[in-house]
Amino acid sequence: MVVVFLLAGCSGSETFQEKQVESPTDRPNIILILTDDLDFASAQKMPQIRSQLIEEGTSFENAFVSYPLCCPSRATILTGLYAHNHNVKGNTPAYGGFQKFLDEGHEENTVAVRLQESGYQTAYFGKYLNGYPGEEDPAYVPPGWDEWHALGVENKYSEYDLNENGEVVSYGKRPKDYLTDVLSSKAMEYVQGTTDHSEPFFMHLSPHAPHLPASPAKRHRNAFAEEAAPRPPSFNEEDVSDKPLWIKHRQRISEEEVSNIDTRYRRRLESMLAVDEMVASLIQELEAAGKLDNTVIFFTSDNGWEQGEHRIHIEKSFPYEESAHVPFFVRGPGISSDSKVEKLALNTDLASTFAELAGVNFSGDGRSLVPLLRGEDPQWRSNILLEGFGEYFSDGSAPPAYEAVRTDSHKYIEYINGERELYDVEADPYELENVHDSADPSLIENLKTKLDALRNCAAESCREAEDSP
């Protein structure tokens, strides 16, 4: 009963796709709002995101990114591929970043290219892939985009450059130059302009918040002055004797660093308030333009965030829930309000979902979420692959490369150095007790078999491996 059903007047996606070929103007507008390093819990604290997206749409409670790191995750969203298939394995050259994405030939095969070819107007606003534009001309605009307003390499909220349709424009540090507000204004102008054409549009709106340095707009400073970072049981974990060496070697977090974590947390929330306003303004503008009833809005993050859990002060890329579990909300015509989906969703699914909504074919490793958005209860995956390739961060340490399988009930992790972790995520959601050495051998063997099927999977073999009982 989601937009696919209502707009097509049919009962199945095959008929929907046939209908769209005949009548492309019936297809919905699609908007992806992609935040940067936003954890699941912090998203719930934003009043407009809660009232306009969560309460007006569907929340995927078990949404994950396979490799919780900015550039690999963003490459997955654009291609629908696991990182081991798109081969963007970090944020920087030579094994990662925008230049790696370009060198691998992915620019010609993104979901934006497919949607544009099918008649969609496409628009990008904000952060693209880390290191963009790399060795290319600063005015380089990737294929697939009719409207292009992309941030350069700076991790800044002021004094930055935007490539605006092939012209590099510099912004200063005046309040009106605040990055989130500039992107919001450009997105609103774009929506206003869509009243002049009948083609559907695909908008990728990617604010920098709450990525460090997490600089809030002046009007939002100290809005969360009394907030402290969450203190789950895993915060500054007391006993890490069951953890791998890269955790065992970490000292317990000092009082000074706990204070720093709280300060970063407040700034992250404050930087998100401009995004929260942007969401409300976007919905208001869509309604004013007569587009809201035919627009599906997706809201998520490229990865989660660690802030003291398991003695990890800062950053992402880890195999734990705080890194890989992300907020994921969808609002649109026919999507039930204030509803929840518990099934496993993954960032590999976004491209396939956009493609089905648009009635186009797109080949990737994921699957369309449209049946879940319709409120159906289809046969669904029972496990997903998590993978990491040893990116190093500001605190000077990172886990060894790893591969993991996450099911509805367990997470099994294999590190390249031979260490292993196993968590019962139903009984132990904070991953406090590594039960690998005491678990039933048959459980470990089953999880290892699942992981072996996933680690080198591609396309249909990924879906088959994810469906393995």
Write a structural description.
By secondary structure, this protein is an alpha/beta fold. It has one domain (3-382): Alkaline Phosphatase, subunit A, CATH 3.40.720.10. It has helices spanning 3-8, 13-22, 40-43, 47-54, 70-79, 83-86, 97-103, 111-117, 179-193, 245-248, 255-288, 321-324, 349-358, 370-373, 441-454, 460-466, and strands at 29-35, 58-60, 63-64, 121-126, 147-151, 161-164, 167-170, 201-206, 295-301, 328-331, 339-341, 345-346, 383-388, 402-407, 410-415, 420-424. The strands form three sheets. A ten-stranded mixed sheet has the order 7-6-5-4-8-1-9-10-2-11, sandwiched between helices. Strands 13-14-15-16 form a four-stranded antiparallel sheet, with helices on one face. The radius of gyration is 21 Å and the shape is globular.
CATH topology: Alkaline Phosphatase, subunit A
| Number of domains as seen in the coordinates | 1
Number of strands: 16
Fourth-level CATH superfamily? Alkaline Phosphatase, subunit A
What's the architecture, going by CATH? 3-Layer(aba) Sandwich
- Largest sheet report: 10 strands, mixed
Mean pLDDT: 92
Low-confidence stretches: 1-24, 392-396
Break the fold down into its secondary structure elements and pairings.
Elements: H1 3-8, H2 13-22, E1 29-35, H3 40-43, H4 47-54, E2 58-60, E3 63-64, H5 70-79, H6 83-86, H7 97-103, H8 111-117, E4 121-126, E5 147-151, E6 161-164, E7 167-170, H9 179-193, E8 201-206, H10 245-248, H11 255-288, E9 295-301, H12 321-324, E10 328-331, E11 339-341, E12 345-346, H13 349-358, H14 370-373, E13 383-388, E14 402-407, E15 410-415, E16 420-424, H15 441-454, H16 460-466
Parallel strand pairs: 1-8, 1-9, 2-11, 3-12, 4-5, 4-8
Antiparallel strand pairs: 2-10, 5-6, 6-7, 9-10, 13-14, 14-15, 15-16
